[in-house]
Amino acid sequence: MTATANADREADFERTIEHHDRIEPRDWMPEKYRATVIRQVAQHAHSEIIGMQPEGNWITRAPSLRRKAILLAKVQDEAGHGLYLYSACETLGVSRGELTDKLISGKQKYSSIFNYPTLSYADVGTIGWLVDGAAICNQVPLCRTSYGPYGRAMIRVCKEESFHQRQGYELLMTMMSGTDEQRAMVQESVDRFWWPALMMFGPPDADSPNTAQSMAWGIKRDTNDDLRQKFVDMSVPQAEALGVTLPDPELAWNEERGHHDFGQPDWDEFAAVVSGSGPCNAQRIAHRKRAHDEGAWVREAALAFAAKGTDL
Ligand SMILES: [Fe+2]
Ligand SMILES: [Fe+2]
């Protein structure tokens, strides 16, 4: 390709980004853009799939048939989110098999939140309220992300995430109008999940090496700190309506800023969990590996069937 053609396609790419239009799979893109989108979408897909485990833990012990049906549907939704996102990632030239290998070998990450255990049924409600709530804050701006297949997947995912958040809140509301023991279960659960939920937005902007480039390319639309602030502002009145206390003594309305002030999560704990030393990291990956290994015969059979080229 000539130097002029090279310059043309780069200019096309820059123009698309500038106009907030979408980059599509067949468009030319810088290699670093491709790698950054793959990293972000893969990490997101892995989070959806690993995120099935903490809640899946309670499916067999749901307190009623209704709660069981709701939880089953919710966990299945997360599997669906993983599938849309792996498909979006495949449009960039990586296979789902490669992505799964990278997850299992620890070369690609998933959200730190899923390395915490679920210790009571109240955790199902808290995860819906806070974890899916934080996911919505993160993901609504991603509906406008510059990579087309990712943005379109997010539009569908966000609709389901907002349903997830409501079901979690409704479960907690039901428990809060129950017995003292149930109210105590909810408070204990919120105490454990509040800080890890704040960590879901990633490190403070000053320590987030990829943010500036990702924003310049329109892959990311808001900074970690802005999204965290939005989440805190959204959660405080919801906690009040629920009747739970958020475990942060520094939490206070700041009239001047028009936002809540709040304390910082333990960033050393975050670094440890991200690097593999969280309470459930080893368990989550071992479980994912077991499921993948046990599914090998299904993948082989599907390929053999496809190779025969016959219809069912
Ligand atoms: Fe999801
Ligand atoms: Fe969800």
UniProtKB/TrEMBL annotation:
Gene3D superfamilies: 1.20.1260.10. InterPro entries: Aromatic_CoA_ox/epox (IPR052703), Ferritin-like (IPR012347), Ferritin-like_SF (IPR009078), PaaA (IPR011881), PaaA_PaaC (IPR007814). GO terms for molecular function: phenylacetyl-CoA 1,2-epoxidase activity. One of its GO terms (biological process) is phenylacetate catabolic process. It comes from the Bacteria. GO terms for cellular component: cytosol. NCBIfam families: PA_CoA_Oxy1. This is 1,2-phenylacetyl-CoA epoxidase subunit A. It comes from Nocardioides currus.
